[in-house]
Amino acid sequence: MKTSTCTPALCALFVLAWSHAAASDDQARVEELIRGVEPKVIAWRRDIHEHPELSNREVRTAKLVAEHLKKLGLQVRTGIAHTGVTAFLQGGRPGPVVALRADMDALPVTEKTDVPFRSRATGTYRGETVGVMHACGHDVHTSVLMGVAEVLTSMRESLPGGVLFIFQPAEEGPPDGEEGGAELMLKEGVFETHTPQAVFGLHAWSPLRVGEIGLRRGPLMAASDAFRIEVLGRQSHGSRPWQGVDPILAAAQIVTALQGIVSRQVDLTAYPAVVSIGAIKGGIRHNIIPDRVEMIGTIRTFDSAQRERIFTRMRVLVEQTAKANGATATFTVDEGGNPVTYNDPALTDRMLPTLEKVPGVREVRFIPLVTGAEDFSFYAQKVPGMYLFVGVTPPDQDPANAPGNHSDYFYVDERAIPIAIRVMTQLAVDFLRQ
Ligand SMILES: [Zn+2]
Ligand SMILES: [Zn+2]
């Protein structure tokens, strides 16, 4: 029976053309929504930049975020991990859940840029009054995700599944004696009510220019662990060292010997590693050999087995070097280290075409390993994650000379902001629809 003049081949072509037209209509709608929120995102970013808050103290920022999300009609939770905020957007059709994460905290840095909205804020850090600045671009992350929440909410009917928005405090690390950040957000159940199938996050990144995106498959950023070494000797007069045990000499030998861990005891063809001593404290006077030296430092690794091996080797080396000097020493790794930030290879492969099609993105680049750390890693330990860097250095500037993240001159070219909004929006939409 013949019911149509359309041959199968022609029909297929017709359906393809129709779905193509629908997709580009849809794309045009996303683009229109994004253009609509851009000025608001820039205004939020400048406001947050001018009013930065230290880790676990993001009260004003969290309030701004929560009020916006409530206005959108989302299910909002506040006060998670001190000042954290989450919101859930239920799409109009069944489907998976995707989490999008931003961090809200600033740093104890006195801003030296001359932007009109520069920070003059101060805060208390380790008992001292300090300048506070969004020197790591978390003002961008927060405002961008507020904008993305608005765009996706406008599209809710056509979205399958749901989106979990995470605004997290204390990425830079909580104040001494407090817990905080991603680890505490998870402990307080951020993934429990709506468990995502994937989590995405981005960072404003000075080593890349506006229009450049950087990422890797697998390990991207290092695990970071702070350690403490205590060397105990026996105090004596500086003129009669044989009457005591000199912990300063033992400490000096430990510092030198520790450099042999990475150069001699780690398979550097697999992954690099870093062991650095950041502070040494011992003694008070030129002619007293003290009884104690304390050292602190950091370890950066990209593989959990290598991480454990370095801990073990350091402990042996510290204890035995002290012993060889007649002293004793303890080696402790602090709680609260960050795991490796690991980009799920399958998820990364799947989302690469999305990144490449984002308007404004000139280049998606696989970058070298980053020895800095990110507590996004905790989310990506629970569910497949992908983290990426969005270039913020002006296109005509050499990033090698641009002030880096954490610098008092750290600068974000705001042309990066619309790109970041598009990246986050498109990652969520494509993940949910594929
Ligand atoms: Zn930072
Ligand atoms: Zn940061």
Can you describe what's shown?
The chain is of the alpha+beta class. Helices cover 36% and strands 27% of the residues. The chain is built from nine helices and 18 strands. The protein has helices at residues 8-50, 59-71, 138-154, 182-187, 247-265, 304-324, 345-357, 376-382, 416-433, and strands at 75-80, 84-90, 93-103, 122-125, 128-131, 160-168, 198-209, 212-215, 218-221, 223-232, 236-237, 274-282, 288-289, 292-301, 328-333, 341-343, 363-366, 385-393. Strand 4 (122-125) and strand 5 (128-131) form a beta hairpin. Helix 1 (8-50) packs across helix 3. The longest helix is centred in the first third of the chain and has 43 residues, at 8-50.
List the keywords.
434 residues; alpha+beta; 4-stranded antiparallel β-sheet; 9 helices; 36% helix; disordered N terminus; binds zinc ion
User: How many E-type strands?
Assistant: 18
User: Uncertain segments of ≥5 residues (pLDDT<50)?
Assistant: 1-6
- Radius of gyration, rounded? 26 Å
Order of helices and strands: HHEEEEEHEHEEEEEHEEEHEEHEHEH
Oligomeric assembly: single chain
Termini separation = 36 Å
- Ligands: zinc ion
Q: Structural class from helices and strands? A: alpha+beta
Biggest β-sheet description: 8 strands, mixed
Trace the largest sheet across and list its strands.
1-2-6-3-7-18-8-17
Shape: elongated
Helix content: 25-40%
The tally of helices reads 9
What would the average pLDDT be, to the nearest integer?
94
Strand content: 25-35%
